[in-house]
Specification:
Layout lengths: L3 E9 L4 H11 L4 E6 L2 E9 L5 H17 L6 E8 H7 L7 E3 L3 E5 L11 E5 L11 H13 L18 E5 L5 H8 L4 E6 L2 H13 L7 E5 L2 H7 L4 E7 L2 H13 L1 E13 L3 H10 L2 E9 L2 E8 L1
Parallel strand pairs: 6-7, 8-9, 8-11, 9-10, 11-12
Antiparallel strand pairs: 1-3, 1-4, 2-3, 5-6, 12-14, 13-14
Helix pairs in contact: 1-2, 4-5, 8-9
Length: about 300
């Protein structure tokens, strides 16, 4: 019999959508999708059946209720059921459509045809079970921040003799590889993409091939900052890290060790109420927070070495 998966369906107000995504990611969701129904939205999530028991799902329902009450939203409803692996692999993709992000990017699901004409940088993406479809506010904030940081670089598809120093970036917690691919398309010379989840690393390899990016320019590997330390020959020019705030705080000393005086960094996956704790940890390790960008209840810190 095929492996079985929990399919979770959460009906909630749009104001609660990002909080629901965050809860599901923290709960261990292996793929999410969202669709609008009238004035509400339905968030679907999937995780292996062995990963959660009924009591775990009941606890998730309670957490979602508490999150809603904290922001004065109506209580969401959570329904769940078991489906076979074959059904899971296609069902969450049905409502995912191409999406423009920032001024430069277009995220195009790999199973849909490419646009006939577009002036945007197209990222073809099949995230599989990895986080990072471009739907979440934190991913969007990171891509927009990369646009700002790399706006002066020649794009990868242009043959140029520009003598600007090559930019090397570390993507910590790469997920589907969406930020690494975006950085390469914006002109980064090389990106080291690491994740502790082997399925995320596999997804990054697959999406590198989908976007026809040279293996020399995007190097995925299983691990964390320690793996980047082993891979790089010298400190990196930029760091992008879209994970959870608590993990970012733990990794800041290690990330500081692979930075040089001119290194910049983009940190997201941070709820607004967590931003001060992350900013304090950065400043204690020799970073200056230059800007804080926010979207709904999420924020992105753009920092540089002091």
């Amino acid at each position: 019999m095929a492996n079985t998966w929990w399919e979770l369906q959460i009906l909630c107000e749009p104001a609660l959508e990002d909080s629901v995504f965050w809860r599901l990611e923290d709960f261990g969701s292996r793929g999410t999708a969202m669709e609008t129904k009238g004035n509400s939205c339905v968030v679907k999530a999937y995780l292996p059946s062995f990963q959660a028991q009924l009591l775990d799902l009941a606890a998730l329902s309670l957490w979602l209720r508490q999150d809603a009450l904290c922001i004065g939203s109506s209580v969401p409803t959570l329904h769940w059921g078991l489906i076979d692996e074959e059904d899971w692999s296609t069902s969450w993709k049905q409502h995912w459509q191409p999406e423009e992000i920032g001024d430069r990017f277009l995220i195009n699901p790999a199973w849909l045809p490419l646009p006939e004409s577009s002036e945007r940088l197209v990222i073809r993406l099949d995230p599989g079970v990895a986080f990072g479809t471009g739907n979440h506010a934190t991913t969007q904030l990171c891509l927009e921040s990369l646009e700002m940081r790399l706006s002066q670089l020649p794009q990868s598809f242009v043959d140029t003799t520009n003598k600007q120093e090559p930019v090397v970036i570390a993507d910590i917690g790469c997920g589907s590889g969406i930020l690494s691919i975006g950085a390469v398309l914006l002109g980064a010379e090389k990106v080291y993409a690491v994740d502790t989840d082997p399925l995320a690393v596999q997804s990054t390899f697959s999406n590198r091939a989908l976007n026809e990016i040279s293996p020399e320019r995007l190097i995925p590997a299983e691990g964390s900052v320690d793996m980047v330390t082993r891979l790089v020959e010298k400190p990196v020019d930029g760091i992008v890290c879209n994970i959870l705030a608590d993990v970012i705080i733990q990794l800041i000393p290690e990330m500081s060790a692979i930075a040089k005086p001119s290194t910049w960094a983009i940190f997201s996956g941070i709820l607004l109420e967590q931003s001060k704790a992350v900013a304090d940890a950065l400043e204690q390790n020799g970073w200056v927070v230059a800007t804080l960008w926010k979207r709904k209840e999420w924020c992105c810190l753009n920092a540089r070495r002091s």
